[in-house]
C-alpha cells in the first residue's frame, strides 16, 4: 500500500495528515474551513484516495497559514507515497466541467518543479477564503510534491463551481499519474531516474 503519515507543528499550525493512494474509503477531514474541507473531500473521492487530515491553525487571523501548511504536508505525503516512482504512469491530465465552469489540470511527477496558474476566479472570495489563496495552495503543493502542475480555468461564473472543477480535475489527474503504467515497468524516464 502506498501510504504516508505526516505531522507538522509550527507556532501557526498543528497538522496530522494520512494519505493512502490505494484505499478509496473516505477519511475524515478537518482543515478549519468548511469550504476547504469540501474541496479536499472532492480530492479524495475523485482521486480514489483515502485522506485523513486534522489542522488546528490560527484561523482567527485567516486561512493563509493553514492552507499553506496543509499543501506542504500533502505534497510531502505524495512524495513519500510514490517513492522512486517505478511503474507509474507519471503524467496525468483531466478536463472537468462543473455546471457553467470548465477547467483542465495537467501534471508530471517529474521531481522537477514547474507551476502554471492560468485561473481568473470571478469573485474575490470563496467560502470565506480569499480567492488568491487557492493559487498559493496549489503552488505550495506543487513545490512540495516536486511536480509540474498546470492549472487552467477556461470559464465560469461562480467561484464555488470553478474551484470544484479545479479540485476534481486535480484529483483525477493525480489518479491517472499514479496509476500503474501500461508500458513502462521501471522508472518512467529515459534517464532511468526521476
**CATH superfamily caption:** Imidazole glycerol phosphate dehydratase, domain 1
Any idea of the CATH topology? Ribosomal Protein S5, domain 2
SSE order, as H and E? EEEHEHEEEEEHEH
Say how many strands there are: 10
Tally of structural domains: 1
Structural class: alpha+beta
Please tell me the overall pLDDT. 97
Within the largest sheet, what's the order of strands?
1-2-4-3
Backbone CA Rg: 16 Å
Proportion of helical residues: 25-40%
Q: What is the tally of helical segments?
A: 4
Low-confidence stretches: none
Largest sheet: 4 strands, mixed
Q: Any idea what the CATH architecture is?
A: 2-Layer Sandwich
* End-to-end Cα distance: 21 Å
The backbone outline, from C-alpha atoms, is globular
Q: In the CATH hierarchy, what is the class?
A: Alpha Beta
Strand content: 25-35%
Textual characterization of the structure:
There is one protein chain. With 194 residues, the protein is of the alpha+beta class. The chain has a single domain, classed as 2-Layer Sandwich (Ribosomal Protein S5, domain 2). 35% of the residues lie in helices and 30% in strands. It has helices at 34-47, 64-82, 132-145, 159-178; strands at 3-9, 13-20, 29-30, 50-57, 91-98, 101-108, 114-118, 125-126, 129-130, 148-155. It has a 4-stranded mixed beta sheet, covered by helices on one side. It has a 4-stranded mixed beta sheet with strand order 5-6-10-7, covered by helices on one side. Strands 8-9 form a two-stranded antiparallel ribbon. Helix 1 packs parallel to helix 4 and helix 2 (64-82) packs parallel to helix 3. The radius of gyration is 16 Å and the shape is globular. The mean pLDDT is 97.
Amino acid at each position: 500500500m502506498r501510504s504516508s503519515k505526516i505531522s507538522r507543528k509550527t507556532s501557526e499550525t498543528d497538522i496530522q495528515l494520512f494519505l493512502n493512494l490505494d484505499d478509496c474509503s473516505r477519511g475524515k477531514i478537518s482543515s478549519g474551513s468548511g469550504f476547504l474541507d469540501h474541496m479536499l473531500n472532492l480530492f479524495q473521492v475523485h482521486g480514489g484516495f483515502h485522506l485523513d487530515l486534522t489542522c488546528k491553525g490560527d484561523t482567527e487571523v485567516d486561512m493563509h497559514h493553514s492552507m499553506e501548511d496543509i499543501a506542504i504536508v500533502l505534497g510531502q505525503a505524495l512524495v513519500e507515497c510514490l517513492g522512486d516512482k517505478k511503474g507509474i504512469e507519471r503524467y496525468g491530465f483531466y478536463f472537468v466541467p462543473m455546471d457553467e465552469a470548465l477547467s483542465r489540470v495537467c501534471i508530471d511527477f517529474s521531481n522537477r518543479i514547474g507551476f502554471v496558474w492560468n485561473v481568473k476566479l470571478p469573485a474575490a472570495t470563496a467560502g470565506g477564503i480569499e480567492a488568491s489563496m487557492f493559487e498559493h495552495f496549489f503552488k505550495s503543493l506543487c513545490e512540495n510534491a516536486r511536480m509540474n502542475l498546470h492549472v487552467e480555468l477556461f470559464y465560469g461564473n461562480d467561484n464555488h463551481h470553478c474551484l470544484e472543477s479545479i479540485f476534481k480535475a486535480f484529483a483525477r489527474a493525480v489518479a491517472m499519474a499514479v496509476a500503474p503504467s501500461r508500458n513502462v515497468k521501471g522508472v518512467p524516464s529515459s534517464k532511468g531516474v526521476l
